[in-house]
């Protein structure tokens, strides 16, 4: 009966996966996923391929699929994580966030998509609002498109965004001060935290390095995470502009649980399976 159960699961997964990943389906069809004699490198390659495709993997299910113990899968995932290829979490692993802390690298990544997300985000902004633009290259694109003559007050910890707001000639500008991180090119530290505590923005556009339903909104820097938490706590409404590559990924420091977001604007190019899961979270999902 046990062998029959594996064969049934094998056929079911082939039908499900063949249309999405011919290589993975071929590997399953040739029984490599169900051959317990696979060497670790082969099994890890297939595990990594599945994580890249689906965004996550559960140790329990992987152990069934590969006909090995959960301890074996955990060791495989640990080796992949140690190599910097995935992020281990309780019960399995996530696709690793590719987001860089360096502003200059982020600025040239997915520029067209970020401009589209920013253009859509303009609908959240009403005349006279106090808008907090967190450090983010997507938010920089938004700053460059802000409506004129709308009487906005823009608050930001990012000198780059501040310059864009000045160049745009939009309303009032409040620049959050403090020590500027040379990688993210944004203010942080105790001084910035103290200033944010006295702010009451109508709307916060939050920057995110990675987003996951379970792990929440995460970033790569500790001080950045602390400042973002303060921004969210001070703001009436929080919106995140998220490119597809950041979904189902995790960075080192959590900013907030995902379901505390009010709105997420993301790409329609994302996997339908991924989008379905996020749409069931209670957060308003906007596809561009």
The percentage helix is 40-55%
Spatial ordering of strands, largest sheet: 6-5-4-9-12-15-16
CATH class assignment of the largest domain = Alpha Beta
What is the global morphology? elongated
Commentary on this structure:
The chain is an alpha/beta fold and 288 residues long. The chain has two domains: 2-96, Arc Repressor Mutant, subunit A (Orthogonal Bundle), CATH 1.10.10; 103-287, Rossmann fold (3-Layer(aba) Sandwich). It has twelve helices and 16 strands. The protein has a seven-stranded parallel beta sheet, sandwiched between helices. Strands 1, 2, 3 and 13 form a four-stranded mixed beta sheet that branches. The longest helix is centred in the first third of the chain and has 16 residues, at 2-17. The radius of gyration is 22 Å and the shape is elongated.
Search tags:
16 strands, 2 domains, alpha/beta, 7-stranded parallel beta sheet, 288 residues, Rossmann fold, elongated, Arc Repressor Mutant, subunit A
């Amino acid at each position: 009966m046990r062998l029959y159960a594996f064969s049934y699961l094998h056929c079911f997964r082939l039908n499900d996966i063949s249309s999405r990943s011919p290589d993975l389906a071929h590997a399953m069809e040739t029984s490599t996923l169900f051959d317990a004699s696979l060497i670790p490198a082969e099994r890890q390659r297939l595990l990594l391929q599945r994580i890249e495709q689906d965004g996550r993997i559960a140790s329990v299910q992987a152990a069934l699929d590969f006909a090995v113990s959960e301890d074996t899968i955990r060791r495989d995932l640990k080796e992949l994580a140690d190599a910097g290829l995935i992020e281990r979490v309780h019960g399995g692993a996530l696709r690793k966030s590719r987001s860089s802390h360096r502003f200059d690298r982020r600025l040239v990544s997915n520029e067209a998509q970020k401009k589209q997300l920013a253009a859509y985000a303009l609908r959240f902004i009403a005349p006279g609002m106090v808008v907090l633009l967190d450090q983010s290259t997507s938010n920089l694109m938004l700053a460059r498109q802000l409506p004129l003559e709308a009487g906005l007050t823009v608050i930001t910890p990012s000198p780059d965004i501040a310059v864009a707001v000045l160049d745009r000639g939009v309303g009032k500008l409040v620049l959050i001060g403090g020590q500027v991180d040379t990688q993210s090119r944004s203010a942080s530290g105790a001084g910035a935290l103290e200033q944010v505590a006295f702010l009451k923005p109508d709307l916060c556009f939050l920057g995110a390095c990675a987003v996951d339903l379970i792990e929440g909104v995460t970033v790569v820097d500790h001080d950045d995470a602390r400042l973002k938490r303060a921004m969210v706590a001070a703001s009436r409404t929080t919106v995140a502009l998220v490119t597809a590559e950041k979904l189902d990924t995790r960075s080192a420091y959590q900013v907030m649980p995902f379901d505390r977001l009010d709105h997420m604007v993301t790409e329609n190019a994302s996997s339908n399976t991924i989008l379905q899961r996020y749409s069931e979270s209670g957060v308003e999902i906007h596809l561009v």
